[in-house]
Specification:
The chain is mainly alpha-helical. 69% of the residues lie in helices and 0% in strands.
């Protein structure tokens, strides 16, 4: 497993969704919609990451880390845009995500927004809380990125190639930049108590919003008479290899909470870079960039 440092860059990818069916994993609406929750959560979440990190840039005292954070900001902004572009396609297929995305927008744009706090300790405290929350969330995006890069069962079951490329391009970039959020938190603060507390907040919020999103999709899927989402279905999907394994997710918790944790323990940089070199969308973006020079 390689963990070499790579220069982070935003790849200006685009995807054509006109041939992607509603159930892009054939005959498996539950897995389709459980993974589709990414399109609901990520645009608002990653725009929020960018907003917070732009406020943090003046406090970074390490040139290499500042360069990594700037690359991270560019990649996250592109992730938000790419997942946002799936939503009109879902509407065209009869599944309007707006009622749910409005809740997600409230969470990131109101609950976790800048607050009118007096300058000094209060304002600094709230900024550091959000930096720590992002580090905790990025632990799980790296976990999911590593999972999807290795989820061969999705290929075996005939998953739509465009959707797989979106998920794996995004997952590979999450593995590629998996250390940035944690290293930024350690550089600016590093409090173990804050790390543990914000992990608990992030984990609870992600689990809550993810199950609500899966339930929303299943209940509003126009092709299902009585669509339901349950933890049992998620657990079984993990056993089949079409969703992350519940035991693997549980084992990731003590890793993050270990005092000697570092994100290099998650995923393989070489594997991520190799996928990005072969991804149809990333290759097309590179070709367009080359033609424009």
């Amino acid at each position: 497993m390689s963990n070499k440092r790579v220069t982070l860059k935003a790849r200006q990818v685009s995807f054509a969704w006109d041939k992607t069916p509603l159930h892009w994993l054939p005959n498996d609406p539950f897995t389709t919609h459980t993974i589709n929750v990414l399109h609901l959560l990520l645009p608002a979440g990653e725009r929020w990451f960018v907003h917070v990190y732009k406020q943090v840039l003046p406090f970074i005292r390490d040139d290499r880390l500042r360069e990594d954070v700037i690359g991270f900001i560019g990649q996250e902004a592109m992730h938000a845009q790419a997942h946002d572009e799936v939503l009109p396609h879902l509407r065209d297929l009869g599944l309007d995500p707006t009622p749910y995305t409005a809740q997600v927008d409230w969470f990131f744009e109101k609950l976790l927004a800048d607050r009118t706090l007096p300058p000094g300790k209060a304002r600094q405290w709230w900024l550091m809380e959000r930096v720590a929350l992002i580090a905790a969330i990025e632990h799980y995006t790296a976990f999911l990125g590593n999972w999807v890069l290795n989820a061969d069962e999705l290929d075996r079951r005939g998953a739509d190639p465009t959707m797989l490329d979106l998920l794996r391009w995004h997952g590979a970039e999450e593995v590629e930049h998996r250390s940035v959020a944690f290293e930024l938190f350690m550089h600016l603060d590093g409090s173990y108590r804050r790390r543990a507390r914000t992990w608990a907040t992030a984990f609870a919020a992600l689990m809550f919003m993810w199950q609500r999103g899966a339930r929303f999709f299943m209940e509003n899927d126009p092709t299902l008479l009585d669509g339901k989402a349950s933890f049992k279905d998620f657990y079984l999907g993990g056993k089949k290899g079409v969703l992350p394994s519940t035991p693997d997710m549980l084992r990731s918790i003590p890793r993050y909470l270990s005092r000697d944790y570092h994100p290099e323990q998650e995923g393989d940089t070489d594997q991520a870079v190799a996928y990005l070199a072969s991804s149809p969308a990333a290759r097309a973006a590179e070709a367009r960039e080359g033609a424009a020079r």
